[in-house]
Specification:
single chain, alpha/beta, TIM Barrel, two-stranded parallel sheet, 15 helices, 12 strands, globular, binds 6-O-phosphono-beta-D-glucopyranose, EC 3.2.1.21, glycosidase, plasmid, 6-phospho-beta-glucosidase activity, hydrolase
Length: about 475
C-alpha cells in the first residue's frame, strides 16, 4: 500500500484578512483587503468611520483562535498555515518602529500552536498590503516599497525566530497580473508595463526576504507561493500546444525567478515583443539570486487554452480566462474539478525545479446544509479532498518530494474573490452568513472526522 512519508505535514491554511476580523483592533492599520470589502473582484471603497464589511469581523479568529486551534489539534494537524497581517505590525507601512500590540498577538498565536505541537507555516503577505503604502507611495509600483517590506520581514523574522521555522513570501504572487490591486496595490486599469514593473519590485523584495530569513533564522526554510494554474491545450493542434506552454509560462516565470534567480529568456522576449522596458538595476539582479528553499502552491482547478478566438471570447470574464475542459465537472462556483491535474502539476514542478514542494491550498468551496439535528453531511467535500490526496500519494510514488498538504480553509472563512461566507471550505462550520448574521458558533462537519482519520492513518484511510 502506497503511503505518505514519515514527517509529512498535514493541516490547513488560512489568511489573516479572511479569518481574523478585529480590523482596526490594537492599532492595526487599513490594508488593501479592508478597502475591498466585497473581495478581490469588487471595487475599492474608501472606508469612512462606521462603514461595515463582512471581513471586519470575519470569523473572529483574532479572539477565538485558542478554541479553533484546539479543534485543529483534535483533527491531528501537524501544521497550520497562517499569514501575518502586515498592517498589524506596520499600520501605515512606512513607520520605523513596529506596533507592539500586533507583534504580541502573533506571539500568542504561535505559542498556542506550539502548545498543540502544530508547526506554523507563515505567509508574510497574503493578498494584502498597507493601504497607506498604496495611497501615499503607489504600492509596489514604487521602488521604496521594497525597503518597507524588507523592514517588515526583518522585524517578524527577528521577533519570531525561535517560534517559526517555515515561511512563505507572497501568496499567489502570479495573481497580480489578474488582480493588480490585491497583488501589487495598483489600480485595475494599470498597463502591463506598470504591472510588470511592480511585480519586479515585489520579486526583488521576495528575494531580499529570503536572504534576511537565512541570515536571521539559519535553521528556517522559506518558500515562494504560486497559484498553480495548470493549463492544457484544448486540442493536439500544435498551435494550441504551444499556446498552452506560453500560458503556463505566465505563472511559471515567477517560480523560475524565485527558484533560479534570474529572468528566463522567454520573458525577456515577451517584454521586447510588447515594448515593455523594465527598470532592473544591477543591485536587483544580485538580490534575485537569493532563491527559495522550497516551492509552495495552491491548486483548485485546471483550464484549457485554445487558439480559436471565438472560444476565447466566450471564456473572457472569469478571473482567469480559461476555456472549460469538456471532460471535467465543475463546482457550484464553476471551478473545474481535476484531481489528476494535481499529480501532473506536482510532477511538472518537480521536474522543473527539483526543489521540495508544499501544497499549501486545495479544497472545495461549496454551500453546506445544516440538517435538523445539526449535522452537516459534506460528502462532496470528502470526495473532492480524497480524490486529490490520492493523486498526491501517486505523485510521491512518482518520486516527487512533497513536504506537506494544508487544505484551504479548514474552518469556514470569508472567500477572497467575492467576500462570501456561503462559499464554505471548512471541516468546521461557522455560523455566520453573507448578511453578517449568525452566532459565530463552530460545529464539526462530517469531513472533520474523515480528515482526522486521514491524518491519524497518515493517508492509509484514503480510498
Ligand atoms: C486562493 C487564495 O486564491 O484561493 C485564498 O490564496 C482564497 O485567499 C482561495 O480564499 C479560494 O478562493 P475563494 O475566492 O473561493 O476564497
Amino acid at each position: 500500500m502506497n503511503t505518505f512519508p514519515d514527517g509529512f505535514l498535514w493541516g490547513g491554511a488560512v489568511a489573516a484578512n479572511q479569518v481574523e476580523g478585529a480590523y482596526l483592533t490594537d492599532g492595526k492599520g487599513l490594508s488593501t483587503s479592508d478597502v475591498q470589502p466585497r473581495g478581490i473582484l469588487g471595487p475599492v471603497v474608501e472606508r469612512e468611520p462606521g462603514d461595515r464589511g463582512i471581513k471586519d469581523v470575519a470569523i473572529d479568529f483574532y479572539h477565538r483562535y485558542p478554541n479553533d486551534i484546539a479543534l485543529f489539534a483534535e483533527m491531528g494537524f501537524s501544521c497550520l498555515r497562517v499569514s501575518i497581517g502586515w498592517t498589524r505590525i506596520f499600520p501605515n507601512g512606512d513607520e520605523h518602529e513596529p506596533n507592539e500590540a500586533g507583534l504580541a498577538f502573533y506571539d500568542k498565536l504561535f505559542d498556542e500552536l506550539a502548545a498543540h505541537d502544530i508547526t506554523p507555516l507563515v505567509t508574510l503577505s497574503h493578498y494584502e498590503m498597507p493601504w497607506g503604502l498604496v495611497k501615499q507611495y503607489g504600492g509596489w509600483g514604487n521602488r521604496e516599497t521594497i525597503g518597507f517590506f524588507e523592514r517588515y520581514a526583518r522585524t517578524v523574522f527577528t521577533r519570531y525566530q525561535s517560534k517559526v521555522k517555515l515561511w512563505l513570501t507572497f501568496n499567489e504572487i502570479n495573481m497580480s497580473l489578474h488582480a493588480p490591486m490585491t497583488g501589487v496595490g495598483l489600480p485595475e486599469n494599470s498597463t502591463q508595463a506598470q504591472i510588470y514593473q511592480a511585480i519586479h519590485h515585489q520579486l526583488v523584495a521576495s528575494a531580499l526576504a529570503v536572504k534576511a530569513c537565512h541570515e536571521i533564522i539559519p535553521d528556517a526554510k522559506i518558500g515562494n507561493m504560486l497559484l498553480g494554474g495548470l493549463m492544457y491545450p484544448l486540442t493536439c493542434k500544435p498551435d494550441d500546444v504551444f499556446a498552452a506552454l506560453q500560458e503556463n509560462r505566465t505563472w511559471q516565470f515567477f517560480g523560475d525567478i524565485q527558484s533560479r534567480g534570474a529572468y528566463p529568456g522567454y520573458m525577456l522576449r515577451y517584454f521586447r515583443d510588447n515594448g515593455i522596458s523594465l527598470d532592473i538595476t544591477n543591485e536587483d539582479r544580485v538580490a534575485l539570486r537569493s532563491t527559495v528553499d522550497f516551492i509552495s502552491f495552491s491548486y483548485y482547478m485546471t483550464g484549457c487554452v485554445t487558439t480559436d478566438e471565438a472560444l476565447n471570447q466566450q471564456a473572457r470574464g472569469n478571473i482567469l480566462n480559461m476555456v472549460p475542459n469538456p471532460h471535467l465537472q465543475s463546482s457550484e462556483w464553476g471551478w473545474q474539478i481535476d484531481p489528476v491535474g494535481l499529480r501532473t502539476l506536482l510532477n511538472v514542478l518537480w521536474d522543473r525545479y527539483q526543489k521540495p514542494l508544499f501544497i499549501v491550498e486545495n479544497g472545495l468551496g461549496a454551500k453546506d446544509r445544516v440538517e435538523a439535528d445539526g449535522a452537516i453531511n459534506d460528502d462532496y467535500r470528502i470526495n473532492y479532498l480524497n480524490d486529490h490526496l490520492v493523486q498526491v500519494r501517486e505523485a510521491i510514488e512518482d518520486g516527487v518530494d512533497v513536504l506537506g498538504y494544508t487544505s484551504w480553509g479548514p474552518i469556514d472563512l470569508v472567500s477572497a474573490s467575492k467576500a462570501e461566507l456561503s462559499k464554505r471550505y471548512g471541516f468546521i462550520y461557522v455560523d455566520r452568513h453573507d448578511d453578517g448574521s449568525g452566532t459565530l458558533a463552530r460545529t464539526r462537519k462530517k469531513s472533520f472526522y474523515w480528515y482526522k482519520d486521514v491524518i491519524t492513518s497518515n493517508g492509509a484511510s484514503l480510498r
